Amino acid sequence: MKAARRPLFFYNVAMWLLSLVITVFLIELGGLVLSDLPTAGQPVSKLEFVDTQALETTEEEIDKLELSMQSTENDIEDAKFVLESRRLDYQTQRSNFESWIRTRGATGLTEQNQQVVDRVEAIELLKTQERDAQQAVQSLEQQQVETNRMLQSLRVQRDQIFDAATAPYEKARQNEILKVFLYRLALTLPLLLISIWLFVKKRGTTYWPVYRSFVMFSLFAFFVELVPYLPSYGGYVRTGVGIVLSLLFAHFAVKGMGRYIQNKKNEEEKPEAEKRKTIEYEQAVKKISEGVCPSCDRHFQPKVTGKKSGSVEAHVDYCVHCGFCLFDKCGQCGTRENSFYKFCGSCGCPSDTEPANA
């Protein structure tokens, strides 16, 4: 804000804020429009391409087998409880029988009688019941293994049904992405073209802050609303778009810099009085105060290094590159001043239209 008027500075700030506010409203409006596009919010589902009848049949069989598995597990738990009970009864009865036999031996009553036979038969019966309980557990476990194998086979069959739907699903999903991209491109591309035209033709005009809002909105719509929906197809489309945009940017950048350099060369060949008419006052004052020539945009302020005093700025009245008059003397008091000043800073007298040294 060295050379710019304070009201002009605040006006520029206000215009930027206005541009941002308009941009926000335009972005919100654009978001509402894009949300109402066809197929928006309705992604393709893989279930749409699955053989529903085969899947339902397989799911029913899986549900039945899972219920059967649960029932078998409960039966195994009950059978193991019975087996453990039979084993304990057998072990207890056998232990009691062995103790009883030892007692008979100690007392000398070793003759065989019906009581011994009955006890042995009772023990054999308990052993038979234990073996039956063991066989029941083994049979249930074998049934569980077979059911589990059938269940695994059905689950593999279900996965195959889903795998068969993968290819048509991916194709439909890519088509849907491309369709959404084309819808967004149909809305975004005209906005971008209009913005380019506004930037080229309307930049610097009275209503440029309004046009600038539209330009920022179109850039947002392109890079945020469109670029993420670029179909990849292995990266070819995305990479191709990036290459085209890069080449276009490089082309216009090279052309623009070439025009800038040529314009500067042409301006340097013009008379100084004519060049001054094309340079804005505030821009010239600011550049000269920063040590930049307003005519050729080169730094004109050299530095002379003294042995004792160090770096000392030398007074330069003319640009050492193009000869443009930078500083002049007041016609009244002789004070050295910026050649673009309209009034002398020492005596207040109006400066001459042409520099005295020109």
Helix content: 55-70%
Task: State the order of secondary-structure elements, H for helix, E for strand.
Answer: HHHHHHHHEEEE
The helix count comes to 8
Mean pLDDT: 79
Kindly, what is the distance between the CA atoms of the first and last residues, rounded to a whole number of angstroms? 29 Å
Strand order of the largest sheet: 1-2
Radius of gyration: 48 Å
- Structural category is mainly alpha
- Largest sheet report: 2 strands, antiparallel
The percent range for strand residues is under 5%
Low-pLDDT residue spans: 304-312, 353-358
Number of strands: 4
Overall morphology: rod-shaped
Polypeptide structure, described:
Helices cover 68% and strands 3% of the residues. The protein is built from eight helices and four strands. It has 358 residues and is mainly α. It has helices at 6-35, 52-107, 114-164, 166-201, 208-226, 236-269, 272-278, 281-289, and strands spanning 303-305, 311-313, 327-329, 336-338. Helix 1 (6-35) runs parallel beside helix 5 and helix 2 runs antiparallel to helix 3.
